[in-house]
Amino acid sequence: MEYQTGMEMNNQTNVVPLDRFSPETKTCHGKDYPTFLDGFFTQFGESYFYAFVIQFILVALMYVNVGKGIYWKVLFYASIAGLVASILENGTVASICRESQQSVSKPFSLIFLLIDEVFWIASEYSIPYLNLIKMKAFARGKLALIMKCTIIGLALPFIYFRFMIGYQRMKKGYLNDTEIKFYHGYAFGIMAVADLICTFGILYFVKKNNSHAELTTNLNEYIKHSSYTILLTVDVVSALLSILNIITNIQKNDIKYLSTSTIPFHCLKSTFVLILAVDAFLFKYGAHLTSVQESSGSKSYGGNDSFYSYKNSGSYKPRGPTHSIDMTGKSRQKAPVSNITPFNYPPIEKDMYKSNKMDSPKMSNSKSIIKNYTHIQTNSTLYESPIDKHEVYPQQQFGFLSTQHRNYQ
């Protein structure tokens, strides 16, 4: 009995308390920064930090040029939240890892690790919310309302676990240990559940609405060819992050090779907002192209490095010369972003289309075969044969990318 007690005391004396300079905490080990700026700039080498910086830049560019509607606003604000959270976390690390702070056990700047969680919550839980917006574009009825309330309700335990992460970091003075990783696993698990609910909801309502009018065809095709892959990627990554964070801490001595397996998934999760932004951008491109083809009839688009040529594939010949639409020319006057297409077409000059036959009464009654997407006044006689009867379709609104949203009924 005395021998066992002696062994227990010996084991307790061998336990080394963790601090921010311990290798296990992945905070200040090997980081003796002479100044704050030196440490902050060095932290740019961390892939997590740089990922949020480049994500904000790219999402901001897409938002300013083509973004419109609640979906794009959430993407933009989520990228800002991720950038601020990353700056606060890495700035705190740069502060507490300075040479002058080595003798200070609990630097005051650790409080920013708790404040930081406000921005991490906004950045990370924006993914389920974005999928909810996507589902609301065509979801109706009691089931849709239940799913909405469930996803919003899951935000509460997610917020709790994220604040526990920040509190433990502030209290202990470092970023990682077994307890903090457990909280990460629980938070990722809640995100995975919320994403799975959105995925099944989208799949269900898309299947239910497949027989609806032709107006929903483009949205369904987008969901089928693009969003399925994105949704499944988000679900799988969140689920694997949750499972691996928990398993590697429960059985860390048995499966040491899994201790670093969460890194690639965590890096991928850091760019979820950028992935969804690119996905929405491609959808808007495809929707615009479809609208052009429907309103213009059967057309072929060829191009080189400087322009795409617009050619008519009809059996008739146009009465005027063939023109090319310059895709790279600069406008003399900058048009408002809300009134231009994603392709930034240059203004159409009326003088380009003047010909000797413009004054013909027969030509004056003809309609343009080219839909005016830039809302620029042009001459209505664009060399169209009077026998042509091309139906001009109204501009379509594509669910979550439009400014008008539908409420649950």
TrEMBL record:
<feature type="transmembrane region" description="Helical">
    <location>
        <begin position="71"/>
        <end position="88"/>
    </location>
</feature>
<feature type="transmembrane region" description="Helical">
    <location>
        <begin position="47"/>
        <end position="64"/>
    </location>
</feature>
<feature type="transmembrane region" description="Helical">
    <location>
        <begin position="143"/>
        <end position="163"/>
    </location>
</feature>
<protein>
    <submittedName>
        <fullName>Uncharacterized protein</fullName>
    </submittedName>
</protein>
<feature type="transmembrane region" description="Helical">
    <location>
        <begin position="108"/>
        <end position="131"/>
    </location>
</feature>
<feature type="transmembrane region" description="Helical">
    <location>
        <begin position="263"/>
        <end position="283"/>
    </location>
</feature>
<feature type="transmembrane region" description="Helical">
    <location>
        <begin position="183"/>
        <end position="206"/>
    </location>
</feature>
<keyword id="KW-0812">Transmembrane</keyword>
<keyword id="KW-1133">Transmembrane helix</keyword>
<keyword id="KW-0472">Membrane</keyword>
<feature type="region of interest" description="Disordered">
    <location>
        <begin position="312"/>
        <end position="340"/>
    </location>
</feature>
<feature type="transmembrane region" description="Helical">
    <location>
        <begin position="227"/>
        <end position="251"/>
    </location>
</feature>
